Amino acid sequence: MLLRRFYISLFIALGLFTFFLSPIATSGHASGLAYTNPITVTARTYTVHFPAYIDLKVSASDPVSTITRASIVIDFSVSGAQEEHPIPLNKPGNSISVSWREDTTGRNFIPPGTQVDYFWEFWDSAGNTLTDTQQQFSTVDTRFSWQHLTRGMLQVNWYDRTQDFGQNILDKANSSVQRISTTLGGGLLHPINLWVYATVQDFHGSLAPGSYEWVGGEALPTLHEASIVAVSTTDSTLVRDMPHELTHLIFHQLIANGIIAPTWLDEGLAVYNQDFREGEMTARLNKALASQSLLRLSNISGGFPASADQAYLAYAQSWNLITYMYRTFGQPRLAHLIKLMGDSQTDFDQDLQQALGVDELHLENQWRIHLGQPAVLTSNQITPTPQATIQVKQTQNGSTNYTTFWLLIGLGVLLVLISLIGLILLVIYSAKNNKVMKDMAQAPAAANWQQGNQTFTYQYPDPSTYMHTSMYAQSPSQPVSPYQGQEYSSIVPDKQVPQE
Length: 500
Fold this sequence. Notes:
Helices cover 39% and strands 20% of the residues. A hairpin with a 4-residue loop joins strand 12 (215-220) and strand 13. The strands form 4 sheets. It has a 6-stranded mixed β-sheet with strand order 9-10-11-13-12-16. Strands 3, 4, 6, 7 and 8 form a 5-stranded antiparallel β-sheet that branches. By secondary structure, the chain is an alpha+beta fold. It is elongated and about 115 Å long.
């Protein structure tokens, strides 16, 4: 009897023990399954072979079941395009090694500096699935062994030159960044890279197929990087192209990604911040002023003309307009305008009104009148400016009439003197202008532009020296890069800075 009661008590105790512990056991088992996926990644690598392809490899194992499927998902930062590629398995097994070659030629071209995110996925015969952790790397022009120097948020990269060369470039670039930041009213918000190629041929090899031969520098604001060509530390690119491209990077950081600025403002600021500008740019502007053929701002807000001559004029007049804006409104108000442009809730005209007190049309009108060009607004479209009313008091007093007589005589003599002085200045100006035109006509040239009987001679085969059209713009028969329209370009360097 006692034995029977013992077994009954033991049975009840075991039942209660099992009842209370079973949730814990079940919970522990479920938790264990979440962290004991039998599929594991044992190795992964990537190798960039710029500009042709990228090789990605992975090894995975599953001691419990056979791995039957694999795929890779790749995301390119600039284009935002995500690609998923199934990977055929020649022989499924417990341990596999697979690879994927990403073609980066033609339509698939991606510039150096592009951020690539990717991850692998695997499936086994038991129904288990593994999504690997996301990996990330940035592409680089692997044709060269790059050296690097960094100061603050600026990094310069070069090859096949000494450390002193790199240090010199860093010093010049840093000075440019500081000066440009002061002009724009704000500095870098994110680190930037400046890539310095040793030859034009090397640089062109970093561009997409079909790029213009005259391109000698580029800025990619979405990648926070720019590239130029510098054969030596005295190249004109360091005082022309380098500050030009750096301005694009800083400006676009200040107005934030996604904000589209008028092209005339974007490019005008870039030319304005150059330390050196060829005289042909001023000559092209003067030609347009003489023929009253300036381009309308509305036609160069969303891009510059395809015509080389008209594109060059667009750069010249954009630079002149920006200069006018800084002189008329002052740097603080221009800096305020750039700051306002970072607000996506307002448009450019609203930003102009708040910062400068004019919209784009009235700004254009004022600038044209300043240059002696035809207005783009009629008198009833212009906001009237208060004028002081001058009242003339009439009198019949004889002495007053006598005084007025001699006053008129004096004014007549003064007008004659002013006319003589003006005539003398005009003769001097004409003599100097003829000399300049004679010098330009004698200079080496490859392109001539007519103005009446005068010929303007440019030192470049193509006068579109800062042409904004995308470096990756292709002909209809050529593939189009997904990065088209995001680049800013400048010319191939072909001369040294003139000694003054």
